[in-house]
Design a protein that fits this description.
homodimer; mainly alpha; Tetracycline Repressor, domain 2; disordered N terminus; Tet_transcr_reg_TetR-rel_C_sf (chains A, B)
Chain lengths: 225, 225
């Protein structure tokens, strides 16, 4: 599914909003599609750059339109609103996170309990490294507050990532049913996320940055032993 | 130490800022002190009410001054700036959290490993209940971004709370030295905080609210077993 299709699907699944009529042209030729896809790519790249440079709070539609050389009204021909754009950016970051987890842990053995625990540690370390290397985009995923319900495709993008935790966890905790496994995977994710997010903010009460990797591994192993 | 003394100490420890001259009157009579303390109390109460009603983001000095019936300039005779006020509010919330932990867990036995683990679970549950009952004020502690370094008294208010974790943890992990114990207490805190904060936001990927208490207890026991 390309991003334009994703966006179209999104418009349908989100709660109704006032969208300029031009956002759904009656005739869409392949040429229009390809041009709109290119504009959407440029818009997402501009948004990612601005989020990395100055954070989510100061992101303005007007600046983004200027970045890619279109009028503000033209921006709403590409996406329905800023929420739609930020969801696409968030989803692209999650997709990269999933790819990083697959690349780094997908080949690791997962047959025995010990193997599964070590694979889970590797998943946690992938998450730490990804957060560290993509700090503003990673933060943005959690800072994003939408005016409308999360569309189904975005929900699936988030839930799909949990298989990286659930697969080893099902070996470690074979007695859990599907519901129990889902909850336990979320508990472990939130625990590791908590250590990393407070740690990378370098708050007074944080686990020191140079200890994050060890402590995340300790928690994962200790919780699963 | 009362809040006016705390504020005075704070002004010294924070990085220099432009503060109206009237903020440090040359003669402070007991009457002035008592009046200023009463004004500070009213100001903090007004800030807490507004944070609970509409969150930290929309808090404005002008509104707070109006709430307690003084001019905007008068507000800066009471506190140096909004950061100073928010730190005092944050600190008062932390103080209440510490009192809740002492009241609910201080009397629990802590001699054996099992006792210490159950005391730690009780500390985690106190934190969950406190966060639930004081959601906007609790969130504010973590949302607060200061322009200046954290003053020493505020740092101590935060670090002091960790004894509720470190005391049972020192029984559970007797081999850790002071530094190791500090880091481990922070790891456990951040893990439990992560589960609770994602959970209470009721995000898609959250541990369901009705399962939070069980999962926090599971994680604490599993990590310490």
């Amino acid at each position: 599914m390309n991003v334009v299709q994703k966006f179209s699907q999104k418009s349908r699944t989100m709660a109704p909003k006032t969208v300029p009529k031009t956002a759904t042209p009656t005739t869409v030729t392949p040429n229009t599609l390809s041009k709109r896809q290119a504009q959407l790519e440029a818009l997402m790249a501009a948004a990612e750059k601005r989020i990395c440079d100055s954070g989510l709070q100061s992101l303005k539609a007007r600046d983004l339109a200027a970045d890619i050389g279109i009028a503000l009204g033209g921006l709403y021909n590409i996406v329905a609103d800023m929420d739609a754009l930020l969801l696409l950016v968030s989803s692209r970051t999650l997709k990269r996170l999933g790819e990083a987890a697959t690349e780094r842990t997908g080949h690791l053995p997962n047959a025995t309990r010990e193997e599964a625990i070590e694979r889970l540690v590797a998943v946690a370390h992938t998450y730490l490294d990804f957060a560290r290397k993509n700090l503003p985009l990673w933060r943005m995923i959690f800072e994003l507050r939408l005016d409308s319900p999360l569309p189904e495709w975005a929900a699936q993008d988030q839930l799909r990532l949990f298989r990286h935790i659930a697969e080893p966890l099902s070996v470690i905790m074979p007695d859990l049913d599907a519901r129990g496994l889902t909850i336990r995977a979320r508990t472990l994710f939130a625990a590791v996320h908590g250590i990393i997010s407070i740690g990378l903010e370098e708050r007074l009460i944080a686990v020191p940055v140079q200890k994050l990797s060890d402590e995340v591994a300790w928690l994962t192993r200790a919780a699963c032993r």
